[in-house]
Write a structure and sequence with these properties.
Helices cover 45% and strands 20% of the residues. The chain is an alpha/beta fold. The strands form 4 sheets. The protein has a 7-stranded mixed beta sheet with strand order 9-8-12-13-14-11-15, covered by helices on one side. It has a 4-stranded antiparallel beta sheet with strand order 1-6-5-4. Strands 2-3 form a two-stranded antiparallel ribbon. α11 runs parallel beside α13, α14 crosses α15 and α14 packs parallel to α16. Belongs to the AAA ATPase family. BCS1 subfamily.
């Protein structure tokens, strides 16, 4: 060190002295490495840092791949989802089953279709045939529908993935699980989804062709099909007093043909009818026959149904199935409830008088709606109900008169009583016993059914009607 300072005091350091300083600095750096150099020289740190870098690359790389795949799916695929509460849900289930069965039976499709996943998860659907067989026994009809899971089908040159899935363990108020069917295909084949919908609807229409579908209300604020489609009741099978059946039919047909007239004049396009009379006079049966003549279906609703409220009634009448007549039975029930609630806190059905009126002609009433109400006790109805706009026609269906008795006889025994002599004898017998106007068509029909092939026996049993009054 003395030498170093001595040299600085002189004329400056020599070359040898400069070299000694550089070597000293280098040795100092080597003996005291920086933090960065120390980390790089640590094998634990370099290994962990490398793994972290690799993990980050993998993670963000996978996110990028998923995002790219999702974007690619959105660009090249199209999805159509059908919820269980949609009317087309059962159409598609039946159509998928039929489509697979038809192609398998015909041996259609190439090797790709044969290797594609088939319907291995099936769901059994069983019902009783309402018509039964000639022996009188009901026929059990069952079908196998696609169950939960995924399958593929080939339709009009396009592959379609079909996924039926259940949303967790959620159930609606009827205990039915929430389900959906999702159809996925290439975007360029999206038009086959429209064709598939039309074909499924056409098949469903053929199943109910010439038949009547009956709907009932559900606690899920909607309508559900009540049993299999039924054969339509012949219009002439219900014998009313002269011209009444034809009068109502012509009035309904006129209403259906005058939609534009109602709209042009700002009149609400709805029609209401009230059928009243004693039990067994054909009120409900006539509505069924009328629906058959119009090729309409029926939505049945009882105002005394447990759990029916004003809001639910309004929602049901607003969301009717197409081409459907509403049949409100026991129209007097709502007014019974009103009177009893005022007196002793009646806790039955919750439909009120004002609730029924609002459902019939309040804001948001469904267009083209036809409502038939029935009651055995018209005197229990509030006069405010029967004004036009709520009830446009009030028709009484009474007990059997002379004309009805004769026409009922002709319908059952016309082929066996060609000259009509037994018919006249039967009608006269009713008159002699003072039964005309006091027995219902249902009672006369019951007498005929007890003597299906024996008109003479029906005449001899007329007196039993007097005992049953």
């Amino acid at each position: 060190m003395n030498q170093l300072f001595t040299q600085r005091e002189g004329h400056g350091p020599t070359n040898g002295t400069t070299t000694s300083i550089a070597e000293g600095v280098s040795q100092a750096v080597h003996n005291n490495p920086t933090l960065y150099e120390q980390l790089l020289s640590n094998p634990l740190f370099t290994g962990g840092f490398g793994l972290a870098c690799i993990g980050a690359v993998v993670r963000y790389g996978s996110v990028g791949v998923r995002s790219a795949a999702s974007l690619l799916r959105e660009r090249i695929l199209v999805n159509m989802e059908v919820q269980r509460n949609d009317a087309s849900f059962p159409w598609f289930l039946e159509w998928i089953t039929q489509h697979h069965a038809t192609r398998q039976q015909n041996g259609a499709g190439g090797w790709m279709e044969r290797l594609a996943p088939r319907l291995h998860h099936l769901q059994a659907h069983t019902r009783m045939d309402a018509m039964g067989d000639p022996s009188g026994k009901k026929k059990v009809v069952f079908s196998l529908l696609p169950g939960l899971g995924r399958s593929f089908l080939y339709f009009r040159g396009a592959w379609i993935a079909v996924t039926r899935e259940r949303v967790g363990r959620a159930f609606d108020s009827n205990g039915v699980p929430f389900e959906s069917i999702r159809f996925t295909t290439l975007y360029r084949h999206r038009f086959v989804l429209d064709d598939m919908f039309r074909e499924a609807h056409l098949r469903a229409s053929r199943v109910v062709e010439g038949k009547m579908v009956v709907y009932t209300s559900t606690s899920a604020m909607g309508w559900a099909v009540d049993g299999p489609p039924m054969p339509r009741k012949p219009f002439d099978s219900v014998v009313l007093a002269r011209n009444k059946a034809e009068f109502i039919l012509n009035d309904v047909k006129g209403f259906l043909s005058e939609r534009q007239l109602y709209l042009n004049r700002g009149i609400r396009y709805t029609r209401g009818y009230l059928l009243h009379g004693p039990p067994g006079t054909g009120k409900t049966s006539y509505v069924e026959a009328l629906a058959g003549a119009l090729e309409y279906n029926i939505a049945m609703l009882s105002l005394s149904q447990r759990g029916l409220t004003d809001d639910r009634l309004k929602l049901l009448l607003r969301n009717l199935p197409a081409d459907t007549i509403v049949l409100l039975e026991d129209a007097d029930a709502a007014f019974n409830n009103r009177r009893q609630a005022d007196g002793d806190g009646y806790a039955g059905a919750n439909v009120t008088f004002s609730g029924l009126l609002n459902a019939l002609d309040g804001v948001g009433v469904g267009e083209g709606r036809i409502v038939f109400m029935t009651t055995n006790f018209i005197d229990r109805l509030d006069p405010g109900l029967v004004r036009p706009g709520r009830v446009d026609k009030v028709i009484e269906l009474g007990n059997v008169d002379t004309d009805q008795a004769a026409r009922l006889w002709e319908r059952y025994y016309g082929e066996k009583d060609v000259d009509g002599k037994m018919k006249d004898e039967f009608v006269q017998r009713l008159a002699d016993l003072d039964l005309l106007g006091s027995v219902s068509p249902a009672q006369i029909q019951g007498l005929y059914l007890d003597n299906k092939y024996n008109p003479r026996g029906a005449i001899e049993m007329v007196e039993t009607l007097k005992k049953s009054r």
